[in-house]
Amino acid sequence: MEKEFVDRATGIHEALTQLRDSLDYAQKKSHIEQIEREQGEPGFWDDQEMAQQKIGELKSLNSVVGPLDEAISAADDLAAMVEMAEEDEELAAEVPGEVERIETMLEKLKLSALLSGAHDAAGAIITINARDGGTDANDWAEMLLRMYIQWANKNDYKVELIDRQDNEEAGINNATIAIRGPMAYGYLRGETGIHRLVRISPFNSEGKRQTSFAAVDVSPEISDSVEVEINEGDVRTDTYRASGAGGQHVNKTDSAVRLTHEPTGIVVQCQNERSQHKNRATAWKMLRAQLARAEEEKREAADAAKYGEQAKTGFGSQIRNYFLHPDQRVKDARTKFQMGNFHAVLDGDIQGFLESTLRWRAGQPIEDDDDDD
Question: Which residues, including other chains, have CB under 8 Å from residue 317's CB and lie 6 or more apart?
Answer without folding.
Answer: 193, 194
